[in-house]
Amino acid sequence: QVHLVESGGGLVQAGDSLRLSCAASGGTFSTYPMGWFRQAPGKEREFVAATSWNGGNTYYADSTKGRFTISRDNAKNTVYLQMNSLKPEDTAVYCCAAKMESYASGHFYYREPDYDYWGQGTQVTVSS
Fold first, then answer.
1. Nearest CA to 127 among 12, 9, 19, 10?
2. For residues 81 and 6, is the Cβ–Cβ distance under 8 A?
3. Distance between CA atoms of 45 and 95, rounded to whole angstroms?
4. How confident is the model over 7-48, as pLDDT tens digits?
5. With CB atoms 3.0 to 4.6 Å apart as the test, which of 24, 59, 60, 111 could cross-link to 29 if both were Cys?
């Protein structure tokens, strides 16, 4: 079993930055592709960013490209989401997700069904 815990959310103003963290326990984190998703009130959950096992391959939603950066520290079993130039429309609960892979494939994934484990999420609120 893999347990994921997000942190770093909060209330910020438009244009500010935040860094979210997702700490993993259990499993073999260093081989898992990881992703960030978000869900705004009244909307479906949507993809934000994804990374391969070592951060060598990353992928972003069009809405976050150029403003958000996903990274990971396998020694700390943690994946990060650096969010810059935040907008009110970025307000959502942000969740990290892990896909179990037994080897370092180099792949990243942007579809929810591809992921096996999910965290509870952390709230990000951006005021205008």
1. 12
2. no
3. 9
4. 999 999 999 999 999 999 988 898 999 999 999 999 999 999
5. 24
Is the four-CA dihedral 115, 48, 92, 74 of positive or negative sign?
positive
> Residues with Cβ < 8 Å from 118, sequence gap 6 or more?
4, 95, 96, 97, 98
Query: CA 94, CA 82: separation in Å to the nearest integer?
Result: 12
Distances in whole angstroms, Cα of residue 34 to Cα of each of 31, 68, 95, 122: 9, 15, 11, 16
Residues 65-116 pLDDT 10s: 999 999 999 999 999 999 999 999 999 999 999 999 888 889 999 999 999 9
For residue 113, the SS3 value is helix
What is the phi/psi pair of residue 12, to 5°? -135, 170
DSSP assignment string, 31-68: G--EEEEEE-TTS--EEEEEE-TTSSSEEE-TTTTTTE
